[in-house]
Amino acid sequence: MVTRSTSVRLRAAVLAAAVGVSGLAVLGTPAAAAPHFDNAPSVQVGYTDSATPGQAYDNTEDVHLPLGSSVDAAGVTHTSRVYATFDLALLKGKRFLGSTLRVREFSAADCGKRAIELWRTERIGRTPSWRRAPAEITKVDEILTPEYCPTATISFDTTAVINAALAAGDRKVSFVLRVPAAHEADPSYGRRLNWYNSVSLGVQFNAAPKIDNKNLYNGGVPCATKAPYPALAFYGVNLQAVGTDTDANDQRALRFDFAVWPKTDPAARTERSTEGRQSGRAAGVLMPDGLFADGVTYAWQARVGDGFEESAWSKVCYFVADRKLPPAPQVTSSNYPLGDPFEHMPLGEPGTFTFSGNGDADVAGFVYGWGVSGVRQCTSGELGQTVCPDLFTAPGAVRADVPGGTATVTLNPPATFNTLEVRSVDLAGLTSAPVRYQISLSQQSYPVITVVGAQPEWNKPVTLRFSTSPGIVGTTEYEYELNGTTQTVPAGEDGSATITFVADRLTGFTVTVRSHSANGWISPKGQTTVRFSGAPRVASEVYPANQVSGGVGVPGTFTFSPPPGWTQVQGYQYSFAYGDYQFVAADPTGQATVTWTPEGSGNVLLSVFAVDMNDNWSEDENMYWFDVA
Questions:
Q1: Which of 6, 75, 117, 367 ranks highest by number of CB atoms within 10 Å?
Q2: DSSP codes joined into one string, 253-309
Q3: 345: which residues sit within 8 A by CB, 6+ positions away?
């Protein structure tokens, strides 16, 4: 390859050195970077021929581009020049670093001679003819050496002319390749350029990354530029920013620098960096927690770099560091007092609890919960930034009426024994030591669940009745959970309600329920399990279960049916009056019938197990009791 362009690597190194000198590179060793390479889109490529001065020739498949002079078989001389125009739009808004125009030779009349000039011309819209050739403005580069003939790839340094075009606001740039005037008529300097490689303009550039001033975050809250500044606790060490870079190679290779300092002392600046971050996504650093003193206002900002150049620093954001825990609250209740809970806890009445900050202005409110008090739940935003919502919009948090004041909440204890945990919280989200307020409820607080009618049977309707203890009045509805779904059913005039469902689950059902009353009372959850036997079924007309019938010497038939859900039954193991077990095979319907004649009167036990196709006995047995007259 023969080249007339400056070494790309050398130019990149020089540029990197220049960046360092100008102060744009900071903090440690920047990520390795290189210019971004691309080819400027071609607008036209073609050639002219002096023998046909009014005709233009566009680059065509399998037709190599003639350059210089040649003589055809008829003795006619053809002198040709090659024209090319390129669109510079991809360099708009980018830092231009260099460019090279390249061609590849296909053949040469004399490999000992090569002379090619590259000129910038007036802008060309389409390939010109010899007669209408555009004016040549300035010579860009030339090659006068014959190495690697006849298949050399030749490059010309076009950096200066592209710089000039960009500075002038030109959207396109045009060139002509020609043999110098002194040799242009000499056929020995003639050659052809490969049509497939054509004429290309390679450009090197870098899009400067940008910091997004609309997406700066500190401690899960947006950047604040005006007082009053947010008070931030331990989350305050988390600084985040969003930067963008349009270069494809830099999409996941950005470096972010963060700086923080006391507002009154800009010289006490601390900087930290993070690398390998994604364009358009939040990147962050954790500043040393010991850097921040309680009550001091701090400023911070960020910038982004791609290893080649950096953005300007962002706008300045401010926050106040909070490192002091608020004092513990006082907890009281007008109707759930501390003491003997079984004597004083009202039945069917919500508890009213008052929290007090005892006048300490650092107490902004309270977090509370049964068993454990709530804390701020920060999440991730759409750009990957930490988002910490207003603490007092979360469940289990309440703002004091004034700083250091009080707040009153109405709560329903969820169980028999309950611990209400309460903490004071300040504006930064710091919480005090917990205060634990213990209360107990009567068992009469729970709703009652009873089965209506006979014992539930598999795959048949079951009706359950919900009711409350007599001391609970004004019941409006019941909230129950069945099969993983929570539903409600209104209470009737007597305060009860019923539900009916098909018992089609072999494992049975667990039903939980709690009552709701008009005064706001919500009971603890009551629970029951609806289960039916997994034993085979037994039926007899002569000797029905739990009845006195038949008589000594009176034979009776007993029919065995599969347990609920069994689809294949081999047979049954059965025993009368504690005798040995015997086996009877099942018919195609899964049933079997045996006949037994009692030899004495009195109570008799028939024990029956189902047997599957693998000789496994059912887990449950049917203990069928009957009385012989």
A1: 367
A2: -EEEEEEEEETT-TTS-EEEEEEEEPTTSEEEEE--GGG--TT-EEEEEEEEE-SS-
A3: 336, 439, 440, 441, 442
Q: What is d(CA 224, CA 216) in angstroms, rounded to the nearest whole number?
A: 9
Place of tokens 């920047």: 30
Q: At which residue do the structure tokens 């028939």 appear?
A: 606
Contact 627, 588 (CB under 8 A): no
User: Among all chains, which residue has been given the structure tokens 């971050």?
Assistant: 277
Mention every residue, 6+ apart, whose C-beta is less than 8 A from residue 510.
527, 528, 529, 530
How far, in Å, CA of 626 to CA of 604, rounded?
5
Tell me the two tokens of residue 15.
């540029």
Structure tokens at 517: 């009353």
Tokens representing residue 484 in the block: 């993983």
Tokens encoding 108: 């040469």
Burial of 23 (0-12, 13-18, 19+ CB in 10 A): exposed
* Cβ-contact 89, 165 below 8 angstroms: no
Rg (CA), the chain: 46
Specify which residues 502 forms β-bridges with: 461
* Euclidean distance between CA atoms 89 and 101, whole angstroms: 17
Q: Are 28 and 192 in contact (CB under 8 A)?
A: no
* 222 to 228, 231, 232, 272, 386: CA distances (angstroms): 13, 12, 12, 20, 10
In 3-state terms, what secondary structure has residue 609?
strand
CA 297 to chain centre: 34
Model pLDDT for residues 372-391, shown as the tens digit of each residue: 776 667 889 999 999 988 88
Q: Which helix (H) or strand (E) holds 480?
A: strand 475-482
Give the DSSP letter of residue 90: G
Report the C-alpha gap between 413 and 353 in whole angstroms. Answer: 11
Tally Cβ neighbours within 10 Å of residue 122. Answer: 11
Could you give the CA distance from residue 421 to residue 548 in angstroms, rounded to a whole number?
62
DSSP string, 513-562: EEEEETTS-BPPPEEEEE----SPEEE-SSS-TTSEE--TT--EEEEEEP
> What is the H or E stretch that residue 165 is in?
helix 159-167
CB proximity list for 320: less than 8 A, separation 6 or greater: 229, 230, 231, 232, 295, 296, 297, 298
Other CB atoms within 10 A of residue 545 CB: 14
Residues of the chain with pLDDT under 50: 4-32
Can you tell me whether residue 251 is helix, strand or coil? coil
31: which 2 tokens? 């990520």
User: How many angstroms separate the Cα of 258 from the Cα of each of 287, 312, 386?
Assistant: 9, 12, 16
Structure tokens at 409: 């909440």
| pLDDT tens-digit readout, 22-65 | 222 233 334 445 678 999 999 999 999 999 999 999 999 999 99
Q: Which residues pair with 102 in a beta bridge?
A: 155, 200
Pairing of strands 2-3, 153-157: parallel
In this prediction, residue 8 carries a pLDDT of: 29
